[in-house]
Amino acid sequence: MAGEDRVIAQILASLGDEGARQARGVIDSSTLRAALRVLIDPSKREARLFIPHYWAVYYHDGRSAFAASNTTFLIFYANPQDDPRFPGPQTPQRLANVRKLTPAEFQNGLRINAERRASNLPPFMFVVRAVGSTTGTFFFDNDVGMEGFSQRVSSVEGEQARIFDEWVQRELVITERADANIEI
Questions:
Q1: Which of 77, 135, 141, 155 makes an SS bond possible with 83, Cβ 3.0 to 4.6 Å?
Q2: For residue 84, what are the β-bridge partners?
Q3: DSSP for residue 79
């Protein structure tokens, strides 16, 4: 069975790599493109495309409009790398890694905004009470971003099945026993 598992894992890896290649071609976010991973589970005969960032689902599916509570604002930055709430140079994968903005950071952002406004430059930090809805990008959907992928997988599966059958004939010795059972 170890040989069969190895062949199945190779088939899944091949299909997963092809899916990742196609998905990367349609994901506009460089962060999500770089984070895309292929997860292989031979026991389930499954290859999954996975992006760990908590906000990937909003980018994929879109979201409805939302607003801050009465006493707060929604704050975001033109360049996410300027956002002091993020722990490093990349946007965080988990929402738990995003901390609240301190009053000093908020005041600094307002100061930079005022300087930029005086120079006729766009804002550094956006402060709003509400944001509108966004349309999803649907990069994993078979009829949008992954257009035709499942149909191509079917043809690849047929070719892979032929290769697997050849491997079985080459690697496994089948012996008929007198009691009409087959030993592999």
A1: 77
A2: none
A3: S
Q: What is the 3-state secondary structure (H, E, C) of the chain?
A: CHHHHHHHHHHHHHHHHHHHHHHHCCCCCHHHHHHCEEEEECCCCEEEEECCCCCHHHHHHEECCEECCCCCCEEEECCHHHCCCCCCCCCCCCHHHCCCCCHHHHHHHHHHHHHHHHCCCCCCEEEECEECCEECCCCCCCCCCCCCHHHHHHHHHHHHHHHHHHHHHHHCCCEECCCCCEEC
Residue 70, classed as helix, strand or coil, is: coil
Confidence band of 172 (pLDDT split at 50, 70, 90):
low
CA angle 50, 79, 24 (to 5 degrees): 30
Q: Per-residue pLDDT tens for 76-108?
A: 898 888 999 987 777 788 888 888 899 999 999
By the 8 A CB rule, do 140 and 150 touch? no
What is the tens place of the pLDDT at every residue in 102-154?
A: 999 999 999 999 999 999 999 999 999 898 898 888 888 877 788 877 777 66
Report the residue count for the chain: 184
